[in-house]
Design goal:
Rossmann fold; alpha/beta; 5-stranded parallel sheet; about 20% strand
C-alpha cells in the first residue's frame, strides 16, 4: 500500500495519481500496443525493488494493476519476453514470465515459451537511448507460431526495440499472427 490508508494493495486515491502512459507511437511488427502507466515515481521505485532487490511481493502489486487495466478476451495465447541465461541466473526470475504465468492460470489462456535470447545482452538501463534503439537483442523463435491472436507481455518499455525484435521473430515465423503488446510501465512512449 502506498498511503497506508484504504484497501490493499492500493487505494483508489493513490491509484488515480499514477500517470497514465500516452501510447501514441507504434512499434514495428506489433499490431496493437497497450502501455498502462508511465515509468516514473513510485511505480519505477517498486519495479526496481522487484527486479534488483528481489522483493517478490511487488509481483502481486503489478499483477493487480494488469488485472484491473487489461482485457484478455479473444486471446489464443500469451508470449513473454525472455531474459538471457545470465540475467535469469542472477535474478532468479523473470518479471514478464511470472506475470504471464499468473494471467495464463487465472484466465485459462495458454502460455507459450517460444522466444529465446541467443546470447547475454547488456542491461538496457545501462545504455543511452540511441544505443538501446539500435541494439540487437538476439531474440529468436524456438518453433513457428500458430496463427492466432497473442499477447506479448513485458514489464518496462523504453525504446520499444525489444518488443519490435520479438514481434519480428514471431511474424517471420508466421505473418498471420496478431500481436498485442501489453506493457506495465513505459518511458518516453
Amino acid at each position: 500500500m502506498i498511503c497506508n490508508e484504504g484497501e490493499y494493495p492500493i487505494c483508489e486515491r493513490c491509484y488515480g495519481e499514477f500517470e497514465r502512459a500516452n501510447t501514441i507511437n507504434s512499434i514495428d511488427f506489433i499490431d496493437e500496443l497497450e502501455v498502462i502507466f508511465r515509468y516514473m515515481g513510485i511505480l519505477k521505485k517498486y519495479m526496481s525493488k522487484l527486479k534488483f532487490e528481489k522483493i517478490y511481493g511487488y509481483l502481486d502489486f503489478f499483477y493487480d494493476i494488469i488485472k484491473k487495466e487489461c482485457s484478455f478476451e479473444n486471446i489464443d495465447g500469451i508470449i513473454y519476453i525472455p531474459s538471457d541465461f545470465i540475467r535469469q541466473l542472477k535474478r532468479g526470475f523473470n518479471v514478464s514470465y511470472e506475470l504471464s504465468k499468473r494471467i495464463s492460470s487465472d484466465y485459462n489462456i495458454p502460455l507459450y515459451d517460444i522466444l529465446k535470447k541467443n546470447a547475454p545482452t547488456k542491461p538496457s538501463h545501462t545504455m543511452t537511448g540511441f544505443k538501446r534503439a539500435n541494439f540487437d537483442h538476439g531474440i529468436k523463435v524456438k518453433e513457428p507460431v500458430k496463427t492466432g491472436r497473442y499477447i506479448i507481455l513485458d514489464d518496462v518499455i523504453t525504446t520499444g526495440k525489444t518488443l519490435s525484435d520479438a514481434g519480428k521473430a514471431i511474424k517471420f515465423s508466421n505473418d498471420e499472427v496478431y500481436l498485442k503488446a501489453i506493457v506495465l510501465l513505459g518511458d518516453k512512449i
